[in-house]
Design brief:
By secondary structure, the chain is of the alpha/beta class. The chain has seven helices and seven strands. A seven-stranded parallel β-sheet has the order 3-2-1-4-5-6-7, sandwiched between helices.
């Protein structure tokens, strides 16, 4: 039987823009209770006001381990549980390794990899105690194929993929589902696209996904019957050939 997220407590990281914002808007419309985490306090407050409902804005910098812990601690204090973790926050640093900035790589690894590991670690004890829960990590097509123009970013997403596959097997006996969603090009801020008309143009040309497309796919993953795990969902613009 198809499940519902109505009334479920969902942490969304990277919630202030792009895919995270689209997830927050869609899930709020479906009746979820949301803990929205991002660095921008102003954007979070604006989003919280726009979507309404039982929503907790959390201004956190997930590159700092103690901030990851605070995000989960404050969510549990407010809601009493976590039903779903949407580990979506990410940074994109492309370019040739020979000219790359290792400090920028370190920051990207802290957000794309370490914060995912720590967020999952932080929510698992309560999920295991309740014998239920869902975790979806935003990966990338770069997690399935190392891309020439973004080798370090690809490495972070490969790390996420390996982690998801390993931890899923560990927690499946506790009724917890873990999966990843791996989009291709998405027309949003991560790719430097903010103009709605340009987003629509790229989507109509089938050159890019909308953030809303990814959010709808995440909702589909979560609402499958409880006996169904979607371990990987790869989605591409129709004309993107990698």
């Amino acid at each position: 039987m198809k499940q519902s997220i109505d009334g479920k407590v969902v942490i969304v990281t990277g919630a202030s823009s792009g895919i995270g914002r689209a997830i927050a808007q869609l899930f709020a419309a479906e009746g979820a209770r949301l803990a929205l985490a991002a660095r921008s306090t102003e954007r979070l407050e604006s989003l919280t006001g726009a979507i309404g409902g039982d929503t907790l804005p959390l201004s956190v910098d997930l590159s700092h381990p103690d901030e990851v812990d605070r995000m989960v601690t404050e969510t549990l204090a407010h809601f009493g549980r976590v039903d779903v973790l949407m580990a979506n926050a990410g940074i994109y640093v492309p370019g040739n390794v020979a000219e790359g900035d290792p400090d920028a790589w370190d920051n990207m690894i802290a957000v794309n990899v370490n914060s995912v590991f720590r967020s999952v670690r932080a929510v698992l004890p309560t999920m295991i105690a309740r014998q239920s829960g869902d975790i979806i990590v935003t990966s990338s097509i770069a997690g399935h194929q190392a891309l020439r123009g973004e080798p370090v970013y690809s490495a972070t997403k490969h790390a996420v993929q390996s982690f998801v596959h390993g931890v899923r097997r560990q927690v499946a006996p506790h009724g917890i589902r873990v999966g990843s969603i791996a989009p291709g090009t998405v027309a949003n801020e991560l790719w430097g696209v903010t103009d709605p008309a340009e987003i629509d143009r790229r989507a109509e040309l089938r050159e890019a996904l909308r953030s809303e497309d990814v959010a709808e796919a995440c909702l589909w993953m979560l609402t499958r019957p409880s006996n169904v795990t979607i371990r990987d969902l790869v989605m591409l613009p129709q004309n993107q050939d990698i």
